[in-house]
Amino acid sequence: PSTPVDCVYFSYALTMIPDWRTAVDNAVAMLKPGGTLGVVDFYVSAAHPPEGRVRHPWATRAFWPRWFGHDGVRLSPAHLPYLLERLDVTTLEEHRAPVPYLPLVRVPYYVLVGTPR
Question: Is residue 63 scored above 90 in pLDDT?
Fold first, then answer.
């Protein structure tokens, strides 16, 4: 935009953007001082996430990137750490959602809201 904005929101998009770090940096640069960045997306945790973060089992970390990869969606354990490095976080939730037609399967996702540091 030609002027800074109050809020930028990525809804299940970072996993589909090859150069997602640049997209995050660009979103942060678009914000007014005190502006808000919101992100919700699928993800898998690192094998050894920081204290207090969810650790997904090996099968989750192996299965979901392959499953989504068939559609060009790249789940990455690097998304959350990069966002946490760039933002003062007001909300961070890590959950699992049901998958249509697969009643016992749940895919991990996160919701993050923050302001640039």
Answer: yes
Spell out the residues 6+ positions from residue 112 whose beta carbon is closer than 8 angstroms to its own.
38, 39, 40, 80, 83, 87, 89, 91, 92, 93
Three-class secondary structure of residue 44 per DSSP? coil
Q: Could you tell me the strand order of the sheet in which 87-99 lies?
A: 5-11, 31-42, 102-116, 87-99
Which 8-state DSSP code applies to residue 112? E
Q: Would you state the structure tokens that stand for residue 82, as one six-digit string?
A: 């990069």
Residue 72 CB-density burial (10 A; 0-12 exposed, 13-18 middle, 19+ buried): exposed
Q: Is the dihedral of CA 51, 97, 25, 34 positive or negative?
A: negative
Residues 6 or more apart in contact with residue 41 via CB below 8 angstroms? 10, 11, 12, 13, 14, 15, 79, 109, 110
Question: CB–CB of 46/76 below 8 Å?
Answer: no
Q: What tokens appear for 117 in the block?
A: 């540091």
> Which tens digit of pLDDT belongs to each residue from 10-44?
999 999 999 999 999 999 999 999 999 999 999 99
